[in-house]
Amino acid sequence: MSNLSGKILGEGGLALVALLVLLVTVSSAATKDPLQQEHVAVVVNQQDVPYNEFLAGYRNTLKHRGSPVTLDMINLTKDEEAQFRTIRELQSRQPRLILALGSVALQAVSREIKDTPIIFGLVLGDMNRPLPDNITGVFLNFPLETQLTWLSKILPERKNIGVIYNPEQNRRTIAAARKITQQLGLRLIAHAINSPKELPVALEALASSADVFWGINDRLVLTPQTAKTLLLFSFRNRIPFIGLSETWVKAGALFALDRDYPDLGRQCAELTEKILSGSRVEDLPTETPQKVKITLNRHTAEQMKLEFPEQLLQDAEKIY
Fold first, then answer.
1. Is the pLDDT of residue 187 over 80?
2. N or C: which end of the chain has fewer CB within 10 A?
């Protein structure tokens, strides 16, 4: 009898188990909503044109691709205690993913949240600094190769590239830039300062050795307080200043590489899709802007007896 029971269980029983597994699988698939919404929390610390353009690009990309995502907008104040309470409330909602826009938002979120995936955007930062495993995103910084290649292209006769920097912030940036300028046949003339008081001496040194003044992201050197000094130096010495953005060009810099903010939103939306589809955050490297906009100041060029190539004028996003 036991042998017969074993035979029945071995043949018919296995078939029955297989049938039950199939029925459960079909039932689960039938009840699962293929358009179930994923909850993404968007944390911002300000709202202006770049932020709005970025979010438009982010939303449009997800919508165009049919990604079922619900966005929960969260605005941070400047008060750190209020930020803490806001982030605690955010955690209780258990979002599938967090999109942090701006440095303040990224710092506030990353300080408290260690396990939820975080994507950042609209952040200028040290691209070489390691990030926690739950964070990736798209920097505002253009790669040094991109910046210096465009500089060489727009000003091919200018070979001596002057730059002033704070070593605490940009030591590694300058070391990397030296290698790139050598490859491009350029000479980098870098002066380190540790205080704004040292800026006049550094500018005086550049006046006798540089024929281009390259502005890099530096919280000590390039600030609203130093802008007038830097631009006056540029005009008085006829050394074109390469700005960080359209704002600098409008103020008198010769040109700047600027970002396509809707396209930055697209890049972050694509990272979002990958994470929601199962990719691990630690397997997704940070990115830099994939599109470049050129802003030119024709008045500055005329003052310095420079001419922009006609094709560059046609391709420029804005001309002042």
1. yes
2. N
Rounded to two decimals, what is the model's pTM?
0.83
Nearest to 169 by CA among 117, 127, 219, 128: 219
> Averaged over 6-26, what is the pLDDT?
40
- The tokens for 108 are 């506030």
Q: What's the pLDDT score for residue 292?
A: 96
Q: Which amino acid is at 240?
A: P
- State the chain's mean pLDDT as an integer: 90
Q: Region 211-228: what's the mean pLDDT?
A: 96
Q: What are phi and psi of 139, to 5 degrees?
A: -75, 155
What domains appear along the chain, each with residue ranges and CATH number? 38-140+261-283 (3.40.50.2300), 144-258+293-319 (3.40.50.2300)
> Does the pLDDT value for residue 168 go beyond 50?
yes
The pLDDT, as a whole number, for residue 302 is 97
58 token code pair: 């982010």
Over residues 200-212, mean pLDDT: 97
The full DSSP string for the chain is -HHHHHHHIIIIIHHHHHHHHHHHHHHHHHHS-TTPPEEEEEEES--SHHHHHHHHHHHHHHHHTT--EEEEEEE--S-HHHHHHHHHHHHHT--SEEEEESHHHHHHHHHH-SSS-EEEEEE---TTS---TTEEEEESPPPHHHHHHHHHHH-TT--EEEEEE-HHHHHHHHHHHHHHHHHTT-EEEEEE-SSGGGHHHHHHHHHTT-SEEE----TTTSSTTTHHHHHHHHHHHT--EE-SSHHHHHHT-SEEEE--HHHHHHHHHHHHHHHHTT--GGGS--B--S--EEEE-HHHHHHTT----HHHHHH-SEE-
